[in-house]
């Protein structure tokens, strides 16, 4: 399975942008980059996903490096409700399963 | 948006009993469902993949006779923890999708906290 590497934790202040990095140097050409987040005692929630081009939705933006070996999830204005564990996951090709790594614990300070 | 309903949200049972957890896709047909287990302060661990109408595929180290998975319809998958023991106490989460490719998102249930006494 292609693996991802994320920082264990990050901290942000409310109303400020947050950039969550993810390295995936062994990504294959058919792998999609997915981001999910998990709030305490809840199931994960879909955030965004992309293949090659940058993606935007109402929750976040996904910036994908030109060589696809890294990506960055961007929360434009962090709120207290964004405090969660964020998972960057590769999915597709022969590996259609979602295999979760340790993720990044995002703390948002008021 | 698509919703996955998981029930019950929490259950307490005695050691040796069996517990059934249901996972329903409410507004779409889920050809594939995944079951995960999560211990405190750890990440989700994939237990098995179930495809409607066929036997589940279990991950290495997961006992298929202990964790029975049934995906009899396109909207319902069940996980039965048989002869539960305290070490089975965990947070169980299901997820569902309608194709097996990478270009669609997964929808997750809210999880079931199982406590075995």
How does this model look, in words?
- The complex is a heterodimer of chains A (110) and B (117).
- The mean pLDDT of chain A is 92.
- Chain A is mainly β and 110 residues long.
- With 117 residues, chain B is mainly beta.
- In chain B, strands 2, 4, 5, 6, 9, 10 and 11 form a seven-stranded mixed beta sheet that branches. A four-stranded antiparallel beta sheet of chain B has the order 1-3-8-7, with no helix packed on it.
- The chains are: A mainly beta (110), B mainly beta (117).
- Chains A and B meet through strand 3, strand 4 and strand 8 of A and strand 4, strand 5, strand 9 and strand 10 of B.
Strands of chain B, count = 11
The termini of chain A sit apart by: 38 Å
Strand content of chain A: over 45%
Taking the sheet with the most strands of chain A, its summary is:
5 strands, mixed
If helices are DSSP runs of H or I spanning 4 or more residues, what is the number of helices of chain A? 0
Strand residue content of chain B: over 45%
Work out the helicity level of chain A. under 10%
Arithmetic mean of pLDDT of chain A:
92
Q: Give the C-alpha Rg of chain A.
A: 13 Å
Gist of the model:
The complex is a heterodimer of chains A (110) and B (117). With 110 residues, chain A is mostly beta strands.
Attribute tags:
heterodimer, A: 110 residues, mainly beta, five-stranded mixed sheet, four-stranded antiparallel sheet, 47% strand, B: 117 residues, seven-stranded mixed sheet, 11 strands, 0% helix, 50% strand, globular
Topology at a glance:
The complex is a heterodimer of chains A (110) and B (117).
Chain A: E1 9-13, E2 18-23, E3 31-38, E4 45-50, E5 55-56, E6 61-64, E7 70-75, E8 84-92, E9 104-109
Chain B: E1 4-7, E2 10-13, E3 19-25, E4 32-38, E5 45-51, E6 57-58, E7 67-73, E8 76-81, E9 90-97, E10 107-108, E11 112-116
Parallel strand pairs in B: 2-11
Antiparallel strand pairs in B: 1-3, 3-8, 4-5, 4-9, 5-6, 7-8, 9-10, 9-11
């Amino acid at each position: 399975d292609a693996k991802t590497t994320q920082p264990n934790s990050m901290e942000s202040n409310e109303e400020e942008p947050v950039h969550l990095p993810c390295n995936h140097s062994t990504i294959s050409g058919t792998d999609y980059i997915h981001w999910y987040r998990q709030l305490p005692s809840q199931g994960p929630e879909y955030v965004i996903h992309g293949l090659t081009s940058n993606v935007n939705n109402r929750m976040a933006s996904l910036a994908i490096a030109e060589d696809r070996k890294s990506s960055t999830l961007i929360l434009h204005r962090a709120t207290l409700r964004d405090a969660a564990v964020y998972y960057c996951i590769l999915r597709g090709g022969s590996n259609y399963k979602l295999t979760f790594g340790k993720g990044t614990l995002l703390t948002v300070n008021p | 948006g698509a919703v996955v309903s998981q029930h019950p949200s929490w259950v307490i049972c005695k050691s040796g009993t069996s517990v059934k957890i249901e996972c329903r896709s409410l507004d779409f047909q889920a050809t594939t469902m995944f079951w995960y287990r999560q211990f405190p302060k750890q990440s989700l661990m994939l237990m098995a993949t179930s495809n409607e109408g066929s036997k589940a595929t279990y991950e290495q180290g997961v006992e298929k006779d202990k964790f029975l998975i049934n995906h009899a319809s396109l909207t319902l998958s069940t996980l039965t923890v048989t002869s539960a023991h305290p070490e089975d106490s965990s947070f169980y989460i299901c997820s569902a999708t309608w194709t097996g490719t990478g270009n669609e998102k997964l929808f997750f249930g809210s999880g079931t906290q199982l406590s075995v006494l």
